[in-house]
Amino acid sequence: MNGMADFEQDGGTLRFTGNLSLSRLGTLPDRLDRVSGDVARIDLSSVDRIDTVGAWLVHRLAVRHDAPVEGLDEDGAHLMRQVVAADQPVATRPRKVRALERVLGEIGAATALSMRTLYGLLGFMGATVIAFVNVIRHPHRFRYNAVIQRFEVVGVSALGIVGLMSFLIGMVIAQQGAVQLRQFGAEVFTINLVGRLTLREMGVLMTAIMVAGRSGSAFAAQLGTMKLTEEIDAMRTIGVSPMEALVLPRTIAAIVMMPLLGFYASMIALLGGGLLLWVTLGIPPITYIQRIREVVPITDLYIGLIKAPVFGAIIAVAGCFQGLQVEADAEQVGLRTTSAVVQAIFLVIVLDAFFAVFFTWLGWN
Length: 365
Prior knowledge:
Blueprint (H helix, E strand, L loop, with lengths): L5 E5 L2 E8 L7 H6 L7 E10 L1 H14 L3 E2 L3 H13 L12 H39 L6 H11 L4 H24 L7 H39 L2 H7 L4 H39 L4 H11 L2 H27 L6 H32 L3
Parallel strand pairs: 2-3, 3-4
Antiparallel strand pairs: 1-2
């Protein structure tokens, strides 16, 4: 037992004895290389022990002489199968893939990932609704302080950047509209363009994009960091629901603040457009305001206010969903934050297109 590894050749049979492990091989590898003649079978029934190195030597010998290996017990046979399976050629360079095949593969992978993400997002949205229902049934679990704090973060702190962006967008719409309509002598209709486009579409849409980049990314980064530091697992351990404590306050804040921010952005955009028209076309403010009241139907304002809370819910749910998907390392926080912003903006634009068709079908033109 546990003697040095050895072998003997009896006609076409090569019979191993002793211990076929690394520490007991000795000069066996060199002697095996000098084996001559035909080897019909390799007998390992007299081997006391065999490890991976010994199995590799036997396998290499069996391949060289095209001889079967016999006599191993169940564990030894399993080890030999693993060695045989591992003996595969290794490519020194990746297989050359045709351009069309590569493009189609990337498109397929991206489509599959998008479907899985959409499925997960729908499930997460359902979980958020369930958490909201549970809070309604048990009002004492509602976290007022957390919601009020998110009101400040999502709404009040965003007034400056949203106002500046809206003011400049209003000026750009007015300037471009005036340039184009001047060719037809219809500069006065620039007011129609500014009023309807701002209240119906651009005010709320650009606000949603700004909130997605500002608050949606913050939600993803905050929850992702908490997931990475196991704070969310700790909350579950002490019986606190992360959906109620973390996701719900952010979602409620986004839903409530988006209509207010959208209305604020629309008013600031109208102010920017009116200022530019006053400077460039000489249209006085009183005329501008009267014209806005005449040409902009109240339904345009309603449309913007209806879309705003939906956009807010999408932004919050996307940000929280991606944040809770963080795993393994800190790099995931950055990747998931980027995914949250891209996903939220994409869904907002898709929903905006849907709303445009829907309200046109209703006759709110």
